[in-house]
């Protein structure tokens, strides 16, 4: 579904403050997979995500979505950014925010409106449709951003540290929301996080990146019994083992990474 | 101790009472000013100054004076035609300069050169190029009113949050859609402030041109006629006209300020 081959990105090549963010990164994500990418902060996770989304043109390597080389933003892709307060448009109502990207689809106004309502319902925010983003809490705003991505019905959803700016309780709710909606919508999700526990809890698979320039240092399959639960899953011996493995990889301690 | 008491006292005051107190302070200021004016006029402290009561009575009379009303209408019409034209010129140019850095850099020297030239100094030039005078008046209004709108649009567009822009781009929208759906609405509060500043400039320019041309009607022309009269009456007319100009400016500004608050509630939350 998503193929990344030998991806390299250098900021300001040739200049005094040249920064090599990604170096020879290889990664492939299967259809319907929920992949979590973890890595130390500043390791180039966001550069990777922006390259997949076609927001920046990487200096080397290839990215393919559904077999098609990414040159500009792929058609069936949606991004959920960390900073919901800046990503939502404050001058639009919640419903209009969710409906806006649907202008890219062949839908009339009514169809867009209905799709927006449906997406808002699936994140439990139907009642907030006519409100404005500033009238909602941070967690609710991020739900709106998720609803906006869902309404677009992407085949690939990218999430850039989506729960990095909310409190712990809200964070758990949103993690469960992602697990719930992926069951309803068939899509591939790539979620970037710096939270090791979160990556193991949410992911089918966790890929660990090195510090910049980023490349893959670990690739672990998460086989935890489902459905996942904030209490029991986190007590499960496999969860504890996996988070230990991921943690060591992130910190750069040598452990044998299962292929 | 004192500060605690003040805080507690403030906590108890309801918003409407606080607002009433504020208006009361404003009104007190005005009352003191009027009283000082009245005294200065009556006692002859400032010999040429007609008293506040005489002047304000004349202000009221002017409201029923057909000649004055025609002049007022003429000034307001020029301003009302010029301001939207200025918006039509300045907003697209501001968008262009704000979104294409190369164009902005190329025009910066010209902009920085033209901007400080007082628009009033361009009256002779405008009269030469635009005839009849009403056209020169509108042309100058458009020119002068364009600056604050242009500059505010430019900075407003530059200030657009890159995350908002990327969000729209990530859904596959092109740069035209980004300007229309993100840059413009996001800069709208800045642009509107520019329009509000421009509105007061339209009055300044309209009255200035009228004052220079004389025959072209408008408050400025009325001012000339009033000042060429004789004795104390002339001064009463001049002052009453100025009060009218001030009132019109105040009304326009208040109206636009209200509209601004209402339209851009999302901004201050």
Automatic annotation (TrEMBL), chain A:
The keyword Nucleotide-binding applies. Keywords: ATP-binding, Nucleotide-binding, Transport. Residues 2-236 form the ABC transporter domain. One of its GO terms (molecular function) is ATP hydrolysis activity. CDD domains: ABC_NrtD_SsuB_transporters (cd03293). It comes from the Bacteria. InterPro entries: AAA+_ATPase, ABC_transporter-like_ATP-bd, ABC_transporter-like_CS, ABC_transporter_ATP-bind, P-loop_NTPase. PROSITE patterns: ABC_TRANSPORTER_1, ABC_TRANSPORTER_2. PANTHER family: ALIPHATIC SULFONATES IMPORT ATP-BINDING PROTEIN SSUB, TAURINE IMPORT ATP-BINDING PROTEIN-RELATED. This is ABC transporter ATP-binding protein.
Automatic annotation (TrEMBL), chain B:
CDD domains: TM_PBP2. One of its GO terms (cellular component) is plasma membrane. It comes from the Bacteria. Residues 72-256 form the ABC transmembrane type-1 domain. Keywords: Cell membrane, Membrane, Transmembrane, Transmembrane helix, Transport. One of its GO terms (biological process) is transmembrane transport. The keyword Protein biosynthesis does not apply. It is found in: Cell membrane. Belongs to the binding-protein-dependent transport system permease family. This is ABC transporter permease subunit. It comes from Nonomuraea montanisoli.
């Amino acid at each position: 579904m998503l193929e990344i081959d030998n991806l390299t990105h250098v900021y300001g090549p040739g200049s005094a403050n040249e920064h090599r963010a990604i170096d020879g990164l290889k990664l492939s994500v299967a259809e319907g997979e929920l992949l979590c990418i973890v890595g130390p902060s500043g390791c180039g996770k966001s550069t990777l995500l922006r390259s997949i989304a076609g927001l920046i043109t990487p200096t080397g390597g290839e990215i393919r979505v559904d077999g098609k080389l990414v040159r500009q933003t792929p058609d069936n892709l949606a991004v959920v950014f960390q900073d919901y307060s800046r990503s939502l448009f404050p001058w639009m109502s919640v419903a209009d925010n969710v409906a806006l990207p649907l202008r890219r689809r062949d839908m009339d106004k009514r169809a867009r409106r209905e799709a927006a309502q449906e997406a808002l319902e699936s994140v439990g925010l139907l009642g907030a449709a006519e409100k404005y983003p500033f009238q909602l809490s941070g967690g609710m705003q991020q739900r709106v951003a998720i609803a906006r991505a869902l309404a677009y019905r992407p085949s690939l959803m990218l999430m850039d540290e989506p729960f990095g700016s909310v409190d712990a309780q809200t964070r758990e709710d949103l993690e469960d929301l992602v697990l719930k909606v992926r069951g309803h919508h068939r899509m591939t999700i790539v979620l970037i996080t710096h939270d090791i526990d979160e990556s193991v809890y949410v992911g089918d698979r966790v890929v660990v990146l090195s510090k910049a320039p980023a490349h893959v240092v670990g690739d672990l399959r998460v086989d935890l019994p489902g459905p996942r639960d904030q209490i029991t899953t986190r007590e499960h011996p496999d969860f504890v083992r996996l988070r230990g493995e991921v943690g060591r990889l992130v910190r750069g301690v040598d452990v044998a990474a299962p292929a | 101790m004192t500060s605690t008491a003040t805080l507690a006292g403030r906590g108890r005051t309801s918003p409407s009472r606080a607002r009433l107190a504020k208006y009361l302070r404003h009104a007190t200021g005005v009352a003191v000013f009027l009283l000082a004016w009245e005294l200065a006029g009556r006692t002859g402290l400032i010999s040429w100054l007609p008293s506040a009561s005489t002047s304000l009575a004349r202000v009221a009379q002017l409201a029923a004076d057909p000649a004055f009303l025609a002049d007022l209408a003429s000034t307001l019409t020029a301003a009302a035609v010029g301001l939207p034209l200025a918006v039509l010129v300045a907003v697209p140019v501001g968008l262009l300069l704000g979104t294409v850095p190369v164009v902005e850099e190329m025009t910066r020297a010209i902009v920085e050169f033209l901007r400080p030239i007082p628009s009033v100094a361009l009256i002779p030039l405008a009269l030469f190029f635009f005839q009849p005078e009403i056209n020169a008046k509108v042309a100058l209004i458009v020119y002068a009113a364009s600056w604050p709108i242009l500059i505010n649009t430019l900075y407003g567009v530059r200030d657009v949050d890159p995350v908002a822009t990327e969000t729209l781009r990530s859904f596959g929208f092109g740069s035209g859609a980004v300007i229309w759906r993100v840059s413009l609405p996001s800069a709208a509060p800045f642009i509107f402030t520019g329009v509000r500043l421009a509105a007061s400039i339209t009055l300044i320019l309209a009255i200035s041109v009228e004052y220079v041309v004389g025959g072209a009607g408008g408050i400025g022309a009325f001012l000339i006629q009033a000042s060429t009269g004789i004795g104390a009456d002339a001064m009463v007319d001049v002052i009453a006209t100025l009060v009218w100009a001030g009132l019109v400016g105040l009304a326009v500004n208040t109206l636009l300020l209200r509209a601004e608050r209402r339209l851009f509630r999302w901004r201050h939350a």
